Amino acid sequence: MHRSYQSFWPGNLLNIPAIQKTPPWLIIVIVVFAVGCAFGIWQAAEIARLKPKGADIRPLWYLNVIGASTTITVSILAMVFVLKEIRDKMKMLETWNEELEDKVEASVEALLQSEEKLKRSRLITIYSLAAACEARDTDTGDHIHRIRFYCEALARKMGLSEDLVQELSHFSTLHDIGKVHIPDRILLKPGKLTDEEWEIMKTHTVKGERILAGGEEFRTGMQIARWHHENWDGSGYPDGLKGEYIPISARIVKLADVLDALLMSRCYRPIPFTLEQAAETVVAMKGKELDPDVVEAFEHLFQQNAFKKIREDLPLLLKGIPLADILSPDEG
Ligand SMILES: [Fe+2]
Ligand SMILES: [Fe+2]
């Protein structure tokens, strides 16, 4: 074919690299009847045959009968046509957007529901394990539940995020899960343990961490199980961690566990401490066994009778009444 015709040849036009790379969504074929009618119709047919994938071919038929300037008339018509097409496409996009928004909303809702289900199953797992531990432990009488609510009150008082407050209060119930591996002759021994027995007893921390080492979701539980017997001054076990090297969750559970142990009878202390005596002992441990900040939170809560209320209203808390409703808003 002659060179001067090549640019009009539809095959060449559609072979331009830019058109090949990003196919146009609309091609307007202007067919001028008055001039080159047959050529125009052939061009339109050829472009329709070779149309790039995804492009929309719209022929614009124009019959120049009034003798107006072909260039101006065709330009105006093409502009009107293009504007109409753009408006139609915008409307279509709006509809797509709305449909997409609805789909995204439905997916988010489904995701939230499955997340909620997952959270519930995790809680069921935690409390089933806690109930199993409680059945074998000597610290019976709702010890783990009191610990849970002491921890919730302390963690909230210390200004921890609500997620962490919930996380650590639920996992606090598993602090002694490792005791399932301690033989009965040691765990249930009424008298004082020998040095050797005591060393075995201390392993409930690392054994507890191992039981919970199932995944990231149980990380707080693992920290609590392993480090709830560490002391702020570094004299605790199993690792002798000191100060803020001990995770905050374990420091809070440590205080809650000490407090509740003081309020229970022991073979070496048949009459349990009163709340006042226990509070004095806890405050005396500030900066030694216990984190000073956790003790400060404890002192505030103690002055507001929070621990007394938790102990008295435990049945209500176990029925699902929120802790904030039991304590005054200031204490919650
Ligand atoms: Fe323990
Ligand atoms: Fe305990």
Description:
The protein folds into two domains: 89 residues; 211 residues, Orthogonal Bundle (Hypothetical protein af1432). It contains 17 helices and two strands. Strands 1-2 form a two-stranded parallel ribbon. By secondary structure, it is mainly alpha-helical. The N and C termini lie far apart (89 Å). The chain binds fe (ii) ion (2 copies).
| CATH fold-level assignment of the largest domain | Hypothetical protein af1432
Please bin the fraction of helical residues: 55-70%
Mean pLDDT: 83
Say which molecules are bound, naming each kind only once: fe (ii) ion
Distance between the termini: 89 Å
How many strands, which pairing sense, and closed or not: the largest β-sheet? 2 strands, parallel
State the order of secondary-structure elements, H for helix, E for strand. HHHEHEHHHHHHHHHHHHH
> Number of DSSP helices?
17
Observed structural traits:
single chain, 332 residues, mainly alpha, Hypothetical protein af1432, two-stranded parallel ribbon, 61% helix, elongated, disordered N terminus, binds fe (ii) ion
Give the gist of this structure:
The chain has helices at 3-6, 10-14, 17-21, 37-49, 70-136, 143-157, 162-172, 184-187, 195-202, 204-211, 219-227, 248-262, 275-284, 292-303, 306-312, 314-318, 323-326, and strands spanning 26-32, 56-62. Helix 6 (143-157) crosses helix 12 and helix 6 crosses helix 14. It has 332 residues and is mainly α.
